[in-house]
Amino acid sequence: MIRRVLIANRGEIACRVMRTCRALAIETVAVYSEADADLPHVRLADQAVCVGPAPARESYLDIERILAAARATGADAVHPGYGFLSENAAFAEACEAAGLVFIGPTGHAIRVMGDKAAARQLMAESGVPVLPGFDREGASDDELRAAAENVGYPLLIKAVAGGGGKGMRIVEKAAAFDEALAAARREARAAFNDDRVLLERYLARARHVEVQVFADTLGNTVHLFERDCSVQRRHQKIIEEAPAPGVSDALRAALGAAAVKAAEAINYRGAGTVEFLLAEDQQFYFMEMNTRLQVEHPVTELITGEDLVAWQLTVAQGQPLPKRQEQLQLSGHAMEIRFYAEDPDNQFLPSSGLLSHVRWPQRPGVRVDTGFEAGNRVSDFYDPMLAKVIAVGADRNQARLQLAQALRETEVAGIQHNLGFLARVLEHPTFAAGELSTRFLDDHAITTGLDPAQHHLRLLAAACHALAAPSDSADPWARLQGWRPQGHRQDLVVLVDQEQEYSVRLRQDDNGLALSVDGGDWLLARADTDRGAFQLGDQSGQFSAARDGEQLYLFDQGFVLRWLVNPVRTGEQGQAGRGFAAPMNGTLVANHVAPGSHVKAGDAVVTMEAMKMEHTLRAPTDGQVLELPFSAGDAVSEGALLATFVADGE
User: Fold this and answer.
1) pLDDT tens, 593-603?
2) 620 exposed, middle or buried (CB, 10 Å; 0-12, 13-18, 19+)?
3) What residue stretches are annotated with the ATP-grasp domain (predicted)?
């Protein structure tokens, strides 16, 4: 019996495996790199071992270090998760040689399915449908060019050792073949140290439909229905769902039977996924088999009620599958998004940094699988996926609406991310209708910004939150500190974003609460300060916000808006008797006075540039500037002391 499992992975999937192990009273061992020492999976495990520095090749991909960690902690099994070493045949065999149970298939099965050409040939021999193509081992560029004419255009050049969309190029016509071939080989060589490629007919409007399979060591193989993973960006899945929309019972049975046949052809063991292209005429064709647990496995768990990690542990201990095919039932619909730290406005480039604020949705029918929390640093050494948000409903539309609402309730600040973009995809009418293909994002322009017509409403919500101070009063307006001689409350907050500075004034007079933004005036009916709603005349909206020092984050429809807050009533950023702290990362532009200088309230002391704008920090009162640690041109980090200051009379 397995009693202690080392999880050879990090973050979200490590936490996911630990959850099931804990439920089954199995101890867990975490491994981590030096960059990941503060991640939750390290703390949640019964034991944790550092396996090296941040680069994956020196830590998570170092087989000997992983095995040494297993020996040192007395682990008797290894779960590889997904990514890293999960589809490395040598790792599976090394675990077995070390007397460790590898919770996955045999090295032979991994090796066969990892070679796309060999897998394609085996499937064709086993009666599993494959696309027209050319997969001869060691073919030269000239042979591939000649074969392309027989395969026909458009075609797909695909790395033999590939995965994750790497080493893959779509070729529309013969004139573009040579350039695409060179690029595919170059990328495959860099990613896999193997530049072999094969050719396949490209189906422009196909869907990506995959089938979850499971096999034990006693000759039993079942499928747990299909998933649709058609919505992809650069061949990377971003939204998955189960069951696949528009798939009839007859087609579902045929897909399942073909997937089981594929698994049986290699005497498979454990969890695997057989991926197919589903053409517009409902014919399907084998693409590849992933010999591990998939990222998107939660949607299958939610429609079947099964714990797939528990199934993996059962099979790894030599026991029969928990259920026979006829005992497996499909119920409801589930949908998942992959939450990436990336910038949709900058070609989806990865984003790294400190997670200053995190709040996940808490609602029935929604599940969040993550390995990050507020205070963690997102590293640029690893895959940018931070979490998966999954929703389940009685039908597809209910699951979609549940998921869209969950994204609106998710709050993550400190990095750029794709939640707002994904919310737009979920709300697109074509997606809502279930009209999917792998070209969905190519065919439909999904905007990444917020509606500018709502900007003043967002400024209002931000100002309300920025002006709120701790108080026993439930009335946010009782917390305003500014007063006019006439007795009417009034306050001003300056909000600075990446484009400009806004002066927002709130005042309470005999007619109620009025709002002024850069010269425009409105009467405010209602507002809340943290998570709530606001109304401005006949316009209204919802918001939630979080404050982190001088930074303010406003969360709206999956997007996050960021401002630097400089309320006049707090004397700008200076603090009497202490100093001036940099409100964010930036560059010092100028010191306006010399050390030892006496300044008047409001005098400029230092100016820094951040968020593409200059920010001048001024004296809060009369006093003396003692030290100026930085010079013009110096890079400064958030919180760095830019000047020390003593107020007169102190």
Assistant:
1) 999 999 998 88
2) buried
3) 120-317
